[in-house]
Design a protein that fits this description.
Elements (H helix, E strand, L loop, with lengths): L10 H16 L5 H8 L1 H10 L17 E4 L20 E6 L2 E2 L1
Antiparallel strand pairs: 1-2, 2-3
C-alpha cells in the first residue's frame, strides 16, 4: 500500500500509534508489552533467517541498528484521517533510525 501520494490510507502513517493509543490504552485489547513485542521482536524473528541484515533489528543492545521510537504511552494516538492521511501522530517525542534523529 502506498504511504505517500494523493490518495493513501490513514493507517499508512498511523498504524502503530493507533494500536498503542486505541487498542492498548483505550480498549485494553492487549497490554503494552505484547503490542510492542508484536511491532518489534516478532516481525524481526521471521525476517532474520531470510534476510541477514535484519538480525540487528527488534532489540536494543550494543551493536544493534538503534531504530528507536520514544513515546508517551498516556498520549500516543494516531491523527491521520482519510481527509488528511499524512497527519503526524501525537505523543511521539523522538524517532531514531540507525541511531540518528529522523
Amino acid at each position: 500500500m502506498p504511504i505517500t501520494g494523493a490518495k493513501v490510507h490513514p493507517r499508512g502513517q498511523g498504524t502503530f500509534s493507533r494500536v498503542l493509543g486505541h487498542y492498548v490504552r483505550e480498549e485494553k485489547a492487549l497490554d503494552l508489552m505484547t503490542a510492542l513485542r508484536k511491532m518489534t521482536l516478532m516481525p524481526r524473528s521471521g525476517w532474520k533467517s531470510a534476510r541477514p541484515l535484519f538480525k540487528d533489528k527488534g532489540r536494543i543492545r550494543v551493536g544493534a541498528d538503534a531504530d528507536i521510537t520514544v513515546f508517551d504511552a498516556n498520549r500516543v494516538i494516531d491523527k491521520a484521517t482519510y481527509e488528511n492521511p499524512l497527519e503526524y501522530s501525537e505523543g511521539i517525542q523522538f524517532v531514531l533510525v540507525n541511531g540518528a534523529p529522523s
